[in-house]
Design brief:
24% strand, UDP-N-acetylmuramoyl-L-alanine:D-glutamate ligase, alpha/beta, 11 helices
């Protein structure tokens, strides 16, 4: 009898080759993708099963980087063709990416096939990818071995524009939504961010986290709202993957503890904020991949102190 691999956390999203330009420099054909940043951040807390697709051009060194961590790659398919490619640029304070090019390549025909272990993962993250693919994953989920399941989704302006209805249907099927401020506004149709958060909360999920780049993140839950600033960093070099690394820290911490009360979410936001701070201080995954769980705990303690209003 073979024993099934299990993991407390599964993610479906993109694994990409990115070209990125920021005021701090440029990087070409570097490792990126929503599932990639998410998995590297989450693997600082728990084992994560990555579901995605790459092309035949995906460099061995990038696969090795992922395989060398607590990331199960049995759900990472290699398909005929080229890996998903994204080119983007950040200007000024780098709070928003300008997409220069998106080549779906192998993603165009990707249909995720989840193993039993992925289907029963207690925590599932639908990272930024086509909403139709997010639905396909939701359709395949089975009850976890014990306890309740937590499903959280992310998205991006491209999908808000081209797959709006399927995306709104995803919102009705998940517990949580993570979006940035621009996405919250365009998805909800509300200019005011608080109104946008409230409206998205009414669209299905029981919590919504709106990320605001260097200004931190807002949590909207039925029973309370909460705001957390970013970890104070002076040297931001490449914000790519900040949102996905935030999600990885958040859900990694929740999956390691197996709870998702509002208090747990608030605590996990500290970890999401910290993993995002490591991601943005270098290009691609160079910084985040070098971090240890002890480094994460140290920054978490610093961030708690940063927001503590008591004197001394
Ligand atoms: P973030 O900065 O956290 O929003 O995520 C950046 C990552 O998302 C990059 O590494 C890109 O490869 C990936 N990405 C860019 N556009 C898309 C898209 N339309 N769908 C899914 N992933 C994308």
């Amino acid at each position: 009898m073979t024993t099934m691999a299990t993991f407390p956390l599964a993610v479906v999203g993109t694994v990409a080759l990115d070209d990125v330009a920021t005021p701090a420099g440029e990087a070409r054909a570097v490792l990126g993708g929503s599932a990639t940043y998410f998995s590297v951040a989450a693997s600082l807390f728990t084992r994560v099963g990555l579901v995605g697709v790459v092309g035949e051009d995906f460099p061995v060194k990038f696969r090795e980087l992922l395989a060398g961590r607590d990331i199960d790659l049995s759900g990472l398919e290699t398909a005929k063709g080229r890996t998903f490619h994204w080119a983007g640029r950040y200007d000024g304070a780098m709070n928003a990416a300008t997409t220069l090019q998106t080549d779906l390549n192998v993603l165009e025909t990707f249909t995720p096939r989840l193993s039993e272990a992925h289907r029963r993962a207690p925590v599932v993250f639908l990272a930024n990818i086509a909403p139709s693919i997010q639905h396909s994953v939701l359709d395949q989920l089975l009850p976890p071995a014990s306890g309740a399941r937590l499903v959280v989704a992310d998205t991006m302006n491209l999908w808000i524009d081209v797959q709006r209805e399927p995306l709104l249907a995803v919102l009705r099927r998940v517990d949580g939504l993570l979006v940035n401020d621009q996405e919250a506004r365009s998805l909800s149709g509300e200019k005011n961010l608080i109104a946008a958060g409230r409206r998205l909360l009414g669209a299905g999920p029981r919590f919504v986290i709106v990320k605001k780049g260097e200004h931190g993140a807002f949590l909207f839950a039925k029973d309370r709202a909460f705001a957390l600033p970013s970890y104070p960093l002076e040297d931001v070099r490449d914000p790519t993957g900040a949102g996905d690394s935030f999600a990885g820290g958040l859900l990694g911490a929740l999956a390691a503890g197996r709870h998702a009360t509002t208090a747990d979410l608030i605590d996990a936001m500290i970890y999401g904020t910290v993993t995002a701070s490591f991601a943005v201080s270098t290009f691609s995954l160079d910084g985040l991949a070098r971090v240890s769980p002890a480094d994460v705990q140290q920054r978490a303690a610093e961030l708690r102190r940063f927001v503590d209003p008591r004197p001394g």
